[in-house]
Amino acid sequence: MEQTFIMIKPDGVQRGLVGEIIARFEKKGFTLKGLKLVSVERSFAEKHYADLSAKPFFNGLVEYIISGPVIAMVWEGKKVVLTGRKIIGATNPADSAPGTIRGDFAIDIGRNVIHGSDSVESARKEIALWFPEGVVGWQTSLQ
Ligand code: CMP
């Protein structure tokens, strides 16, 4: 079954949007397979966004992601990568439709509340990076 990596960024956590965002994925019918509240080191944020390292906004993006704890999640379901991106809305909140997470809760591309994997391949890499301990189904249970 397809899985995607979803991160609620520091602004989303600080603004108290965690419950609202989780509810949208749950109500759509997706299954939560992994979740943790974590702070990330600069080097880890740089690894997550390595593909963007040449962009002029890269340093600001890394500063933003390490500015407070984030919620890292794995969601599972049919076409969850593409559908997850639709639930999230366009990267620039100026272009994201009302009814999407960014369309409803963001106005600034530099503070756009949430990240979702952009392909099945990115999802596989991001889940491996953020959940090296595994997610429900392929880790051992607490004993
Ligand atoms: P995300 O979905 O996490 O993927 C890459 C991130 O880079 C994006 O959301 C934004 O947070 C950020 N980003 C993309 N374009 C810009 C930009 N022009 N200025 C600032 N941040 C950007």
TrEMBL record:
Q: Which InterPro entries match?
A: NDK-like_dom (IPR034907), NDK-like_dom_sf (IPR036850), Nucleoside_diP_kinase (IPR001564), Nucleoside_diP_kinase_AS (IPR023005)
Enzyme Commission number(s) from the entry: 2.7.4.6
Query: What are the UniProt keywords, alphabetically?
Result: ATP-binding, Kinase, Nucleotide-binding, Transferase
Q: Catalytic positions? A: 115
- Please give the Gene Ontology molecular function terms for this protein: ATP binding; nucleoside diphosphate kinase activity
Q: Where is the Nucleoside diphosphate kinase-like domain?
A: 1-137
Single GO BP term: UTP biosynthetic process
Please list the cofactors this protein needs: Mg(2+)
Where does the chain bind ATP?
9, 57, 85, 91, 102, 112
Q: Which reaction does it catalyse?
A: a 2'-deoxyribonucleoside 5'-diphosphate + ATP = a 2'-deoxyribonucleoside 5'-triphosphate + ADP; a ribonucleoside 5'-diphosphate + ATP = a ribonucleoside 5'-triphosphate + ADP
What family is this protein classified in?
Answer: Belongs to the NDK family.
Q: What is this protein called?
A: Nucleoside diphosphate kinase
